């Protein structure tokens, strides 16, 4: 993209766009180009806030605070009046995804008999779990405390997201079910986990410019993998470079540039199922800006 507006231009000509995403290696990798000014847009300045995904879900729901916010797809129906989905920047599980792990070997059907620690009721992981079995009893625990809580004996099982999907086995935990695998076997579709929502009030022209900026940032990271990964490593909790590279590859790829027709179908399908089964009280109205 072209270089930033010259210093002689009035600061009043520069539009400040607030972007919020989670402090994870995959999100950091995705936003590397924008966050380090490798990607610049005349007339726009981007400010970045890093906060955990459930906090972002709630803030988008309660305040519509950020211009662009990472959200769980489960949260979308609750924010759809103020936000629309961007066609890029999402995380999609291609036959993998959030998983339930436990301190002892359990079968998926055993989960209906115990309490499962979850990372938040607006996370897509929670929605997928409830679509799998609506009778599972859950309790919210900060996502990075779920594995320690299982190890401490506070819960028999927990629903893990983010890097925990790659590190749970090294903690001696057992996989009960991978919801991404279950979803693909059930629907034949990828499991859409999180995306970027953009405020409707910004208008069509800004939607187009900001979408291009984010897509360019993702492409820049994919094209300059080594420095982008080095930048992302500062957000890679408990991962060495090899595991961080694997985690980033799982969630930043061609699907992140564009969900594809089947990816968009998967988002609609998951939310529609959540609504049909009474998990989501609001009828989802999914639309995208490209």
Explain what you see:
- The chain is α/β, with parallel strands linked by helices.
- The protein has helices at residues 25-30, 32-35, 53-62, 76-79, 124-132, 146-151, 164-167, 179-187, 204-223, 225-232, 241-251, 254-257, 260-276, and strands at residues 15-21, 44-50, 68-72, 83-86, 91-93, 99-102, 115-118, 137-140, 157-160, 174-178, 191-199, 288-289.
- Strands 1, 2, 3, 4, 5, 11 and 12 form a seven-stranded mixed beta sheet that branches. The protein has a five-stranded mixed beta sheet with strand order 8-7-9-6-10.
- Helix 9 (204-223) packs across helix 10 (225-232).
- The longest helix has 20 residues, at 204-223.
- The protein is globular.
What are the main properties of this structure?
7-stranded mixed beta sheet, 5-stranded mixed beta sheet, alpha/beta, 290 residues, 39% helix, globular
């Amino acid at each position: 993209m072209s270089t930033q507006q010259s210093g002689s231009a009035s600061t009043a000509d520069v539009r400040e766009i607030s972007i919020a995403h989670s402090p994870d290696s995959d999100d950091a990798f995705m936003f590397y180009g924008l966050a380090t000014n490798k990607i610049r847009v005349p007339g726009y300045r981007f400010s970045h806030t890093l906060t955990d995904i459930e906090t972002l879900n709630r803030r988008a729901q309660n305040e519509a605070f950020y211009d662009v916010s990472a959200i769980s797809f489960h949260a979308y129906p609750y924010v759809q009046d103020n936000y629309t989905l961007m066609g890029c920047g999402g995380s999609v599980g291609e036959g993998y995804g959030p998983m339930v792990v436990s301190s002892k070997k359990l079968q998926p059907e055993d989960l209906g008999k115990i309490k499962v620690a979850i990372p938040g009721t607006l996370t897509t992981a929670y929605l997928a779990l409830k679509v799998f079995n609506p009778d599972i009893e859950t309790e919210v625990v900060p996502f990075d405390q779920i594995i320690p809580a299982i190890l401490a004996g506070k819960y028999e099982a927990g629903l893990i997201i983010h890097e925990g999907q790659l590190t749970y086995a090294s903690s001696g935990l057992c996989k009960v079910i991978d919801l991404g695998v279950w979803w693909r076997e059930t629907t034949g579709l990828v499991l859409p986990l999180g995306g970027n929502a953009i405020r409707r009030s910004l208008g069509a022209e800004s939607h187009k410019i900001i979408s291009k900026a984010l897509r360019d940032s993702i492409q820049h990271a994919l094209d300059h993998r080594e420095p982008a990964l080095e930048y992302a490593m500062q957000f890679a909790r408990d991962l060495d470079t090899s595991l961080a590279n694997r985690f980033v590859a799982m969630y930043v790829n061609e699907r992140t540039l564009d969900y594809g027709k089947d990816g968009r179908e998967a988002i609609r399908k998951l939310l529609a199922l959540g609504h049909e089964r009474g998990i989501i009280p609001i009828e989802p109205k999914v639309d995208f800006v490209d």
